[in-house]
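User:
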Amino acid sequence: MINVLLCEAPGGAPRCGDAALIDAWDPAGDALIWVDIDCHDVEAARALLTGRFGISPLAASDALRERHPPKLEWFDDYFFLLFKGFTAETADINNFSVVHISMFVGRNFLLTVHALPSPSVSGLWSAVAQGAVQPRRGTVHLCYRLLRRIVDRYTPVILGLENRLDALEESLAERPDDAVLLELVNYNSRLKKLRRTFGYQQACLDELRHAQSTLFNGESEHEFQDVYEHMERLTSLSALMQELSRDLMDGYISLNGHRLNSIMKTLTIASVIFLPLTFLAGIYGMNFDHMPELHSDAGYFVLLGAMAVIATGLLWAFRRVRWL
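Assistant: Predicted structure:
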């Protein structure tokens, strides 16, 4: 599906329509067009990009690929930026999938390409259509607005994860179990992927904020600096959260090891206590005819007393060395 937003006159209301509205746009004129392509029909999207808008076939192929790391590429009269965002309105790191959003930004056109629904794109589209965002400020400004929406949607996810890790830390102190470890492993894996994505995207924004392009105006550097700072903060937070999740996993393993050591110490103490008692019981349980102690009236009680003294002595010794 292709949605088109055309702004022909300064201060005028933008026109919204389908692909047919593209014919009303003059590439050499001052009218601004935003084409949002839901690329379920890959070949139709490729033909539109490379034909009507003159996009590089290699860049179009990158935009239409299902998986590709974020990137920034410059051409003579436009630049190509590929970013990753979230598909769903959720702050739960376990319940989201990533959408690749490709942007081609020229003097008077903005092309966005994505295979999955993007709340960031649809939200900005509605804001422009309703007049809350002025498209006449330029395609680069629209690109900045879209990037801010993409980046800002990561923030509640990372902050929500911070709260969840704090709760897991408390539960580990009270009663560690394997379910907590599995959750921590999952968080660590997702944070590793987010950190890699954030690293690519931060590098793209760093290049954008220092770029010297005829497409940029006096505000562009400050706008991309703003997005870069937000992305830098997210990168730092994701690194901190991943380090915390690893520390919690190490803490879980240490607690489990300590608990196992306590169990083994208890079993060892019991074995040490019963070893001499079993030895005495074994000696006097042998069926020899000539064992004088067996014929003593007090032999049984003497043996029990000896066992009690040995057990008590061992318990006292263990307490002295702080094993108990």
